[in-house]
Amino acid sequence: MRLSLLDRSRTRAGRPDGEALHDTVARARWAEELGYDRFWVAEHHGVPGVASGSPPVLLAALGAATERIRIGSGGVMLPHHQPFVVAEQFRMLDALNPGRVDLGVGRSLGFTEPVRRALRQGTDAPDTFEADLAELRDHLAGTGPVTVRPAGGHVVPLHVLATGRGLVVAARLGLPVVLGGPVLASDELPGALAAYRSGFRPHAEGDRPRVMVSLDVLVADDAATARELALPEAWAMARSRQTGEFGPLEAPAAIRAQAWTDQLRRRVEEHLDRTVAGTPAQVRRELERLAERTGADELLASTSTHDRDALRAADAALAELVHGR
Fold first, then answer.
1. Homologous superfamily of 2-217+278-323 in CATH?
2. Listed residue (51, 38, 32) closest to 300, CA to CA
3. Which of 69, 152, 286, 311 lies at 20 to 30 Å from 279 by C-alpha?
4. pLDDT grade, residue 206 (50/70/90)?
5. Which of 279, 267, 271 is nearest to 302 (CA)?
């Protein structure tokens, strides 16, 4: 199984938002040293806990800071952008970082109604995702009605961040998929993946169904430590359901010192139970079960925690576990 990282430029309590971007660049460097295959970044708008709203801008910095690792988006939210402009951005990135750039696209409309209004994205807008995706694919391949500049170079690989419906679209267009979140726990996932693979229509020679799974993975010397490292993300997610705001990462000690309602505690525990966190042996067993259930070609670890030194150690432990590096 290939091994990659998704870094969402998570902000941390008490620190400037912009520092999270520098943290992402530093993490990309160490991911390259550790032998990860890809390093992807995200697009979130108006979210206090995430500093990255523009993957192409951040990817330009990552390309300049690294030499070999593939860099990409997980992903660009296509409803907010014109396919031609996205193609231009990623053709430019490929020209600057030849053969190292991936483009993952999703269809999220924004976290809250004010954000959606700021993006000029109404929930009643027509769904043009499949048509836009096909147009984007053609622009990247150089077969669109207008030539994207810079011309030539590599064809930037396109990936779909997919829900069950997205799997159907990806199969029709002959594109690989990235699966994460609640869809991984769905009882319908095996059947949906079987339908994706059987319904896959290759668009070009060599196209085949490919599945990447994205989830939080934390490896530590003991299970309790791994679970504690996962707490800041679980807390932010649980609190967001209570307040409507996805906040910065907090230190576990600061989290423990706050008041916990029964509902909040239940939501935190549910999130922790969905996280793959434990010793190397425990995590290996979980990843083997996941690979058997999904037939995944690649793991995109979306891990985060408050302590950056602990995050680096967890990334190193995961690389050692999967690739012996």
1. Luciferase-like domain (3.20.20.30)
2. 38
3. 69
4. confident
5. 271
